[in-house]
Protein backbone atom coordinates (compact mmCIF):
# COMPACT_ATOMS: atom_id res chain seq x y z
CA UNK A 1 0.00 0.00 0.00
CA UNK A 2 1.36 3.42 -0.93
CA UNK A 3 1.60 6.06 1.79
CA UNK A 4 -1.59 8.08 2.22
CA UNK A 5 -3.03 10.72 4.49
CA UNK A 6 -4.87 9.29 7.49
CA UNK A 7 -7.72 11.24 9.04
CA UNK A 8 -6.95 12.23 12.65
CA UNK A 9 -9.22 11.43 15.56
CA UNK A 10 -11.99 14.05 15.89
CA UNK A 11 -11.45 16.97 18.26
CA UNK A 12 -13.28 16.45 21.55
CA UNK A 13 -13.17 12.65 21.41
CA UNK A 14 -12.90 10.92 24.80
CA UNK A 15 -10.58 7.92 24.71
CA UNK A 16 -9.30 5.91 27.70
CA UNK A 17 -9.73 8.88 30.03
CA UNK A 18 -8.18 11.47 27.71
CA UNK A 19 -9.98 14.20 25.77
CA UNK A 20 -8.48 14.91 22.36
CA UNK A 21 -8.10 18.66 21.76
CA UNK A 22 -6.41 18.73 18.35
CA UNK A 23 -3.79 17.13 16.14
CA UNK A 24 -0.39 18.76 16.66
CA UNK A 25 1.86 16.62 14.45
CA UNK A 26 1.75 13.75 12.00
CA UNK A 27 4.07 11.70 9.85
CA UNK A 28 4.26 8.45 7.98
CA UNK A 29 4.39 6.47 11.20
CA UNK A 30 2.08 8.14 13.71
CA UNK A 31 -0.22 11.02 14.64
CA UNK A 32 0.34 13.12 17.78
CA UNK A 33 -2.49 14.93 19.57
CA UNK A 34 -2.77 17.51 22.31
CA UNK A 35 -5.12 16.11 24.93
CA UNK A 36 -6.18 16.58 28.55
CA UNK A 37 -6.30 13.87 31.19
CA UNK A 38 -9.06 13.51 33.78
CA UNK A 39 -7.27 15.98 36.09
CA UNK A 40 -7.08 18.64 33.39
CA UNK A 41 -3.36 18.21 32.71
CA UNK A 42 -2.15 18.71 29.15
CA UNK A 43 -0.55 15.62 27.60
CA UNK A 44 0.63 14.52 24.18
CA UNK A 45 -0.98 11.33 22.86
CA UNK A 46 0.87 9.51 20.10
CA UNK A 47 -1.16 7.11 17.95
CA UNK A 48 0.49 4.25 16.04
CA UNK A 49 -0.88 4.60 12.50
CA UNK A 50 1.64 3.88 9.70
CA UNK A 51 0.25 5.47 6.55
CA UNK A 52 1.74 2.79 4.28
CA UNK A 53 -0.15 0.01 6.08
CA UNK A 54 -3.43 1.46 7.34
CA UNK A 55 -6.06 3.93 6.14
CA UNK A 56 -8.58 5.79 8.31
CA UNK A 57 -11.30 7.76 6.60
CA UNK A 58 -12.79 10.98 8.07
CA UNK A 59 -15.42 10.20 10.68
CA UNK A 60 -14.05 6.75 11.42
CA UNK A 61 -12.11 5.57 14.48
CA UNK A 62 -10.80 2.17 13.42
CA UNK A 63 -8.39 2.15 10.45
CA UNK A 64 -8.83 -0.20 7.51
CA UNK A 65 -5.96 -2.65 7.08
CA UNK A 66 -5.71 -5.06 4.17
CA UNK A 67 -5.08 -8.77 4.97
CA UNK A 68 -1.64 -8.67 3.32
CA UNK A 69 -0.58 -5.68 5.49
CA UNK A 70 -2.01 -6.99 8.76
CA UNK A 71 1.03 -9.11 9.83
CA UNK A 72 3.41 -6.19 9.29
CA UNK A 73 1.03 -3.78 11.04
CA UNK A 74 0.86 -6.07 14.08
CA UNK A 75 4.64 -6.43 14.29
CA UNK A 76 5.06 -2.65 14.23
CA UNK A 77 2.28 -2.29 16.79
CA UNK A 78 4.05 -4.70 19.14
CA UNK A 79 7.33 -2.78 18.71
CA UNK A 80 5.55 0.53 19.38
CA UNK A 81 3.95 -0.89 22.53
CA UNK A 82 7.22 -2.36 23.79
CA UNK A 83 8.99 0.94 23.12
CA UNK A 84 6.41 2.71 25.27
CA UNK A 85 6.94 0.24 28.09
CA UNK A 86 10.71 0.68 27.89
CA UNK A 87 10.57 4.48 27.81
CA UNK A 88 8.15 4.53 30.74
CA UNK A 89 10.98 3.13 32.89
CA UNK A 90 13.24 6.09 32.06
CA UNK A 91 12.98 9.23 34.16
CA UNK A 92 15.36 11.90 32.91
CA UNK A 93 14.86 15.62 32.24
CA UNK A 94 16.28 15.29 28.71
CA UNK A 95 14.22 12.25 27.63
CA UNK A 96 10.53 12.38 26.75
CA UNK A 97 8.37 11.36 29.71
CA UNK A 98 6.05 8.44 28.87
CA UNK A 99 3.29 8.29 31.49
CA UNK A 100 0.90 5.73 30.00
CA UNK A 101 0.19 3.53 27.01
CA UNK A 102 -3.05 1.81 26.05
CA UNK A 103 -4.87 -0.08 23.30
CA UNK A 104 -7.95 1.31 21.55
CA UNK A 105 -9.43 1.46 18.04
CA UNK A 106 -7.41 -1.67 17.14
CA UNK A 107 -4.14 0.22 17.53
CA UNK A 108 -1.88 1.50 20.34
CA UNK A 109 -1.43 4.90 21.99
CA UNK A 110 1.48 6.35 23.97
CA UNK A 111 0.84 9.18 26.46
CA UNK A 112 3.68 11.64 27.04
CA UNK A 113 4.22 14.81 28.99
CA UNK A 114 3.31 17.90 26.96
CA UNK A 115 5.94 20.63 26.76
CA UNK A 116 5.79 24.10 25.22
CA UNK A 117 8.59 24.94 22.82
CA UNK A 118 9.80 24.01 19.36
CA UNK A 119 12.09 21.52 17.68
CA UNK A 120 15.78 22.15 17.13
CA UNK A 121 15.05 21.91 13.41
CA UNK A 122 12.58 24.80 13.65
CA UNK A 123 15.15 26.79 15.63
CA UNK A 124 17.81 26.22 12.95
CA UNK A 125 15.48 27.07 10.06
CA UNK A 126 14.26 30.29 11.70
CA UNK A 127 17.82 31.49 12.23
CA UNK A 128 18.74 30.50 8.68
CA UNK A 129 15.78 32.43 7.27
CA UNK A 130 16.89 35.50 9.27
CA UNK A 131 20.40 35.21 7.86
CA UNK A 132 22.02 34.79 11.28
CA UNK A 133 25.83 34.44 11.25
CA UNK A 134 26.98 32.09 12.60
CA UNK A 135 23.84 30.06 12.10
CA UNK A 136 24.05 28.68 15.65
CA UNK A 137 26.73 29.72 18.13
CA UNK A 138 29.40 27.27 19.27
CA UNK A 139 28.41 27.94 22.88
CA UNK A 140 24.83 26.90 22.09
CA UNK A 141 25.99 23.72 20.34
CA UNK A 142 28.27 22.66 23.18
CA UNK A 143 25.77 23.43 25.94
CA UNK A 144 22.65 22.07 24.26
CA UNK A 145 24.24 18.83 23.02
CA UNK A 146 25.77 18.24 26.44
CA UNK A 147 22.18 18.02 27.74
CA UNK A 148 21.13 15.85 24.79
CA UNK A 149 23.96 13.43 25.52
CA UNK A 150 23.05 13.30 29.20
CA UNK A 151 19.66 11.99 28.14
CA UNK A 152 21.14 9.65 25.55
CA UNK A 153 23.48 8.14 28.13
CA UNK A 154 20.45 7.28 30.26
CA UNK A 155 18.78 5.69 27.23
CA UNK A 156 21.86 3.57 26.51
CA UNK A 157 22.14 2.61 30.18
CA UNK A 158 18.66 1.10 29.81
CA UNK A 159 19.91 -0.98 26.85
CA UNK A 160 17.99 1.07 24.29
CA UNK A 161 19.14 2.86 21.16
CA UNK A 162 17.42 5.90 19.70
CA UNK A 163 18.19 5.14 16.01
CA UNK A 164 16.53 8.29 14.65
CA UNK A 165 18.41 11.19 16.23
CA UNK A 166 18.08 14.41 14.23
CA UNK A 167 17.16 18.05 14.89
CA UNK A 168 13.47 17.32 14.22
CA UNK A 169 13.49 14.85 17.12
CA UNK A 170 15.25 17.15 19.58
CA UNK A 171 12.66 19.40 21.22
CA UNK A 172 13.67 22.66 22.89
CA UNK A 173 11.66 23.75 25.88
CA UNK A 174 10.91 27.43 26.37
CA UNK A 175 13.94 27.66 28.69
CA UNK A 176 16.17 26.16 25.96
CA UNK A 177 16.77 22.75 27.54
CA UNK A 178 16.35 19.85 25.09
CA UNK A 179 14.25 16.67 25.18
CA UNK A 180 14.82 13.57 23.06
CA UNK A 181 11.65 12.62 21.17
CA UNK A 182 10.35 10.09 18.66
CA UNK A 183 12.61 7.11 19.16
CA UNK A 184 13.28 5.14 15.99
CA UNK A 185 13.49 1.70 17.60
CA UNK A 186 9.82 1.03 16.80
CA UNK A 187 10.08 2.52 13.30
CA UNK A 188 10.63 -0.76 11.57
CA UNK A 189 9.45 -2.40 8.41
CA UNK A 190 9.20 -6.02 7.40
CA UNK A 191 11.02 -7.00 4.23
CA UNK A 192 8.67 -8.86 1.91
CA UNK A 193 11.19 -11.58 1.17
CA UNK A 194 12.55 -12.16 4.68
CA UNK A 195 10.84 -12.48 8.09
CA UNK A 196 13.19 -9.95 9.71
CA UNK A 197 12.76 -6.42 10.98
CA UNK A 198 14.97 -3.62 9.73
CA UNK A 199 15.12 -0.13 11.22
CA UNK A 200 14.15 2.84 9.09
CA UNK A 201 16.54 5.76 8.86
CA UNK A 202 16.81 9.42 7.85
CA UNK A 203 19.42 10.02 5.10
CA UNK A 204 22.17 12.36 6.23
CA UNK A 205 21.61 11.69 9.91
CA UNK A 206 21.76 7.88 9.74
CA UNK A 207 25.00 5.99 10.31
CA UNK A 208 26.20 3.75 7.44
CA UNK A 209 25.49 0.58 9.43
CA UNK A 210 21.78 1.44 9.32
CA UNK A 211 21.83 1.11 5.53
CA UNK A 212 22.80 -2.57 5.50
CA UNK A 213 21.37 -5.86 6.67
CA UNK A 214 22.70 -7.09 9.98
CA UNK A 215 24.60 -3.85 10.58
CA UNK A 216 26.51 -3.75 13.87
CA UNK A 217 24.33 -1.30 15.79
CA UNK A 218 25.39 0.17 19.12
CA UNK A 219 25.98 3.47 20.95
CA UNK A 220 28.31 4.45 18.08
CA UNK A 221 25.27 4.41 15.77
CA UNK A 222 23.54 7.15 17.77
CA UNK A 223 26.88 8.98 18.10
CA UNK A 224 27.07 9.34 14.29
CA UNK A 225 23.63 10.97 14.41
CA UNK A 226 24.74 13.33 17.19
CA UNK A 227 27.67 14.44 15.01
CA UNK A 228 25.34 14.87 12.04
CA UNK A 229 22.94 16.96 14.13
CA UNK A 230 25.75 19.22 15.35
CA UNK A 231 26.87 19.64 11.73
CA UNK A 232 23.29 20.59 10.76
CA UNK A 233 23.35 23.31 13.43
CA UNK A 234 26.41 24.79 11.71
CA UNK A 235 25.27 24.72 8.08
CA UNK A 236 21.48 24.46 8.22
CA UNK A 237 21.37 21.14 6.37
CA UNK A 238 22.27 17.50 7.07
CA UNK A 239 25.64 16.04 6.08
CA UNK A 240 26.10 14.11 2.85
CA UNK A 241 24.24 10.77 3.23
CA UNK A 242 26.48 7.95 4.42
CA UNK A 243 25.86 5.73 1.39
CA UNK A 244 26.99 8.54 -0.93
CA UNK A 245 30.02 9.25 1.24
CA UNK A 246 31.19 5.68 0.74
CA UNK A 247 31.32 6.30 -3.02
CA UNK A 248 32.51 9.92 -3.11
CA UNK A 249 33.02 11.58 0.27
CA UNK A 250 32.66 15.36 -0.03
CA UNK A 251 32.60 16.18 3.68
CA UNK A 252 36.16 17.59 3.74
CA UNK A 253 35.02 20.48 1.56
CA UNK A 254 32.09 21.22 3.84
CA UNK A 255 34.27 21.16 6.95
CA UNK A 256 36.87 23.47 5.38
CA UNK A 257 34.19 26.15 4.98
CA UNK A 258 33.53 26.01 8.72
CA UNK A 259 37.13 26.78 9.68
CA UNK A 260 37.36 30.20 11.30
CA UNK A 261 33.64 30.16 12.10
CA UNK A 262 33.88 27.39 14.69
CA UNK A 263 36.87 26.20 16.71
CA UNK A 264 39.10 23.54 15.19
CA UNK A 265 38.54 21.39 18.27
CA UNK A 266 34.76 21.33 17.79
CA UNK A 267 35.14 20.56 14.09
CA UNK A 268 37.51 17.68 14.92
CA UNK A 269 35.03 16.24 17.41
CA UNK A 270 32.28 16.30 14.79
CA UNK A 271 34.59 14.74 12.19
CA UNK A 272 35.37 11.99 14.70
CA UNK A 273 31.67 11.34 15.31
CA UNK A 274 31.02 11.12 11.57
CA UNK A 275 33.65 8.52 10.74
CA UNK A 276 32.19 5.94 8.35
CA UNK A 277 33.84 3.05 10.18
CA UNK A 278 31.96 2.49 13.47
CA UNK A 279 35.21 1.43 15.16
CA UNK A 280 36.77 4.82 14.35
CA UNK A 281 34.03 6.76 16.18
CA UNK A 282 33.70 7.38 19.91
CA UNK A 283 32.46 4.11 21.37
CA UNK A 284 30.33 5.67 24.10
CA UNK A 285 28.41 8.88 24.67
CA UNK A 286 30.61 9.55 27.69
CA UNK A 287 33.71 9.52 25.45
CA UNK A 288 32.07 12.04 23.12
CA UNK A 289 31.03 14.29 26.00
CA UNK A 290 34.56 14.16 27.37
CA UNK A 291 35.96 15.13 23.97
CA UNK A 292 33.81 18.27 23.96
CA UNK A 293 35.35 19.28 27.29
CA UNK A 294 38.98 18.14 26.90
CA UNK A 295 41.66 18.08 24.18
CA UNK A 296 40.63 15.66 21.45
CA UNK A 297 44.00 13.95 21.01
CA UNK A 298 43.80 12.34 24.45
CA UNK A 299 40.28 11.08 23.74
CA UNK A 300 41.28 9.58 20.39
CA UNK A 301 44.17 7.70 22.01
CA UNK A 302 41.74 6.20 24.53
CA UNK A 303 39.34 5.36 21.70
CA UNK A 304 42.07 3.62 19.69
CA UNK A 305 42.78 1.38 22.67
CA UNK A 306 39.07 0.55 22.88
CA UNK A 307 39.02 -0.22 19.15
CA UNK A 308 41.95 -2.64 19.46
CA UNK A 309 40.22 -4.38 22.35
CA UNK A 310 36.94 -4.73 20.42
CA UNK A 311 38.71 -6.05 17.32
CA UNK A 312 40.54 -8.64 19.40
CA UNK A 313 37.33 -9.73 21.08
CA UNK A 314 35.76 -10.25 17.65
CA UNK A 315 38.86 -12.05 16.40
CA UNK A 316 39.00 -14.51 19.27
CA UNK A 317 35.25 -14.93 19.74
CA UNK A 318 34.48 -18.63 19.77
CA UNK A 319 38.09 -19.71 19.24
CA UNK A 320 38.55 -20.64 22.87
CA UNK A 321 42.03 -19.23 23.42
CA UNK A 322 43.38 -19.15 26.93
CA UNK A 323 43.07 -15.83 28.78
CA UNK A 324 46.86 -15.50 28.95
CA UNK A 325 47.18 -15.64 25.17
CA UNK A 326 44.61 -12.91 24.72
CA UNK A 327 46.34 -10.65 27.24
CA UNK A 328 49.69 -11.12 25.49
CA UNK A 329 48.15 -10.19 22.14
CA UNK A 330 46.58 -7.02 23.55
CA UNK A 331 49.96 -5.95 24.91
CA UNK A 332 51.57 -6.53 21.52
CA UNK A 333 48.94 -4.46 19.73
CA UNK A 334 49.15 -1.56 22.16
CA UNK A 335 52.93 -1.10 22.20
UniProtKB/TrEMBL annotation:
Residues 18-297 form the Protein kinase domain. One of its GO terms (molecular function) is ATP binding. The keyword Nucleotide-binding applies. InterPro entries: Atg1-like, Kinase-like_dom_sf, Prot_kinase_dom, Ser/Thr_kinase_AS. SUPFAM superfamilies: Protein kinase-like (PK-like). One of its GO terms (cellular component) is cytosol. Keywords: ATP-binding, Kinase, Nucleotide-binding, Transferase. This is Protein kinase domain-containing protein. It comes from Oxalicibacterium solurbis.
